[in-house]
Amino acid sequence: MINFQAITFADREKINAVLKLSDFRAAEYSFANIFNWSKAFNSEVAFFEDFLLCRGGRERKSYLYPAGAGNLEAAITAMINDAAALGHPFVLRAIQAEGKQLLEQLFPGRFHFTAWRNTYDYIYHSGDLINLSGKKFQSKRNLISRFNKNFEWHYESVTAANLQECVQMNEEWCRIYACHENSSLQAETCAVRRALNYFSDEMLAGGLLRADGKVIAYTVGEQINSDTFIVHIEKAFGEKFPGAYQAINREFAERHAAHLKYINREDDTGDEGLRKAKLSYRPAFMIEKYSAALITA
Questions:
Q1: Where are the domains of the chain?
Q2: pLDDT in tens, 39-87
Q3: Residue 15 pLDDT more than 90?
Q4: Distance CA 89, CA 93 (A)
Q5: Nearest Cα to 143, choosing from 246, 248, 283?
Q6: How do residues 149-177 score in pLDDT, each as one tens digit?
Q7: How many whole angstroms separate alpha carbon 216 and alpha carbon 240?
């Protein structure tokens, strides 16, 4: 069996080196996401040649499509054997279009593929989110204009000096939106807390908006590959401060993603409101993702 182990922060350097080999821009291929969500997903990692292997789940394990380099067929076969040793059906997830083609070539007729729309990442041209030019972004510009008119605010980079205020703002946000009553928000809260706890160590970038001396919005992200910045967290008191989400989105993108072609704002988890909001920013394209279930005789 593969020697899967719980992920630790000590794995960061090695995992990042392997992820760089694939240059994937999908959200699953960020050390921060793998590490921060590991408790929620019960994730474990292992290395096979120069591949990163990851499995997660409690009652049944599923496996992340491997990132890295080497003999892909051997890596997939090793994961198939690992699932068989556990007595679990083999399911591979977060497979992108190119990976789907490779699997069909390497294992013809052995997998059943299912597209998972709820996991598709939204990819935007960074210039669109920064400039908000043209008629299609008129409503966003209007919201920011009203926000500027109605509130006295300023932007700050997240640092050790104000990080705890982001933690406190996040806890207040969770109380307002009753995170404890929603299993998805509970899992997200756990991941966000870990991200903020390890913010400096993970070398993440963050920004916040302050009004009346109080943090009213914050966001956290990083460069995920050679041409894409990814936004991991974005929170705002949007009902009390209309336009705060739009303002933090633009301000953060301008400071951290202007030198890159794309911004990945991750998936919508199937939430209708979130889907509508992300589509309203007119993504350049979506990263389609599939799961693959091994067909047994």
A1: 5-120+289-294, 121-266
A2: 999 999 999 999 999 999 988 999 999 999 999 999 999 999 999 999 9
A3: yes
A4: 13
A5: 246
A6: 999 999 999 999 999 999 999 999 999 98
A7: 9
Query: What Cα–Cα distance (Å) separates residue 35 from each residue in 85, 89, 90, 193?
Result: 25, 25, 23, 12
Are 280 and 105 in contact, with CB atoms under 8 Å apart?
A: no
**Superfamily (CATH) of domain 5-120+289-294:** Gcn5-related N-acetyltransferase (GNAT) (3.40.630.30)
> Do 121-266 and 5-120+289-294 have the same topology in CATH?
yes
Rounded to 5°, the CA angle 183-189-194 comes to 135
The mean pLDDT value for 9-28 works out to 96
Q: Model-level pTM?
A: 0.95
Has domain 121-266 been given CATH number 3.40.630.30?
yes
- Which residues lie below 8 Å from residue 13, measured CB to CB, with a gap of 6+? none
> Count of CB atoms within 10 A of residue 104's CB?
14
Is the pLDDT score of 246 beyond 90? yes
